[in-house]
Predict the 3D structure of the following.
Amino acid sequence: MRALPIIAAALLCCSAVVGATGGLAGSTANGAPARAGTGASPMAFDAPTPIAQAEGDASLQQINVLDVAPTSVERWGVERQYVDLGPALGLSANATTDNLRTRAMVERVESAGTTAERRERLETALQNLEARVDDLDERQTATVAAYGRGEASARELLVTLVRVSIAADELNDRRSRIEELAADTRGFDIDRGRLASLGNQLSAFRGPVREHAEAVLDGGTDPHRFYLATGPRSVTVSTVLDDAYLREAYRGDLRNGAGDAIELEVALDIVAASYPVIWNTTREQTQVFGGGEAYPVRIAHSRGDLTAFVDSDARVVYAEHQRRPLASMVADQRANGTGEEVRLVVNQTYPGGPAQIRVVDAVTGEPIDATVSLAIETNDATRLGTTGDDGVFWTLSPYRRYTVTVEARGESIEAVVDPGAPPRVDRGPRPDDATTSPTSAPVRTRLSDPGGTDVYQR
């Protein structure tokens, strides 16, 4: 394995690496990691030893995903979403309202007549911010539950996820403004770990799928298909966009949200144990963002990028953002259908994951442009599109058995596909459990100075 750069951003003393856009500092428009902010003092960080893995090429192994527990899935669906004037206006209005509230907060603090009054107003603003962050979690949870009971549509759930994301963006800006105001207030000793924790919690609501869904709902891009699955306090949402697979998962049932700070190495250990294939493949960069309750760990690796959010009390991954090139996916479940001239091959992954539909000449193997339809269980088929000149069409795998039908050269060919199961992230033992074995978790490491940032190369 080549040299591993690790950036550990310790926010217990410096929260500057949480950006004002609602995402983690170091994230770019396309989700690729960038350089983290610098802290007050450097620290040395020893990289954990890779987890023992079964023999074989890591590039041919499935990468784990956080998902709703299989016995807890209440409802799921794969639906095409499109621009709608109502939700689009609502999204804009919500963003404007939150922005005005942030401005009002700044004006109220700056208009304080005395330093003591300014400190009091700042503390009130911080308490209000914490309450608003909790409100976002509750709003999302309530709509997830309504969708699971059949009282909310997939569209209503997706709109809520986007609204929560937009609100998180604005609240993170408010958090940054509070930090700036605190720095200019004499005698106000703000808890930077408290601010960092808020920023890290908010970043879990701002993922790549919601970002694209926002563009669809406000008319910024074409209609698109999204996969949704929910369970108690949990939601998974994914999509295929161009040549990439995007996935988000939020497991509120795993999150305690009241933990004390943990060492950054502990967060790394938890992520390493949860995603062994990623941990044992080539990693270009690993970033750790410290805080009180939530610890995002971002890994840019040879098959995409991952941000895993660790709950400091439960010590599990409770939220996940993944971006994967389709070419890096292991579509290892195959179904076939063959006619006189046309052959259909479906290579799929797991429910909510990408499925490759490939149509070729039955004799020569040359690609064929075919019309693609999909039916879930005994339901009517829905036309998805055409394979194009390369004979390939990517879609999202449903949660149940489905039938793919392609039409070309006067033939109609079918293939029945079993959905399989995703390689789920398990809770596993905590890094400090006595039962933890050297083969199930990385060797513990030592963090010498939790007050800054540095880049370590092994």
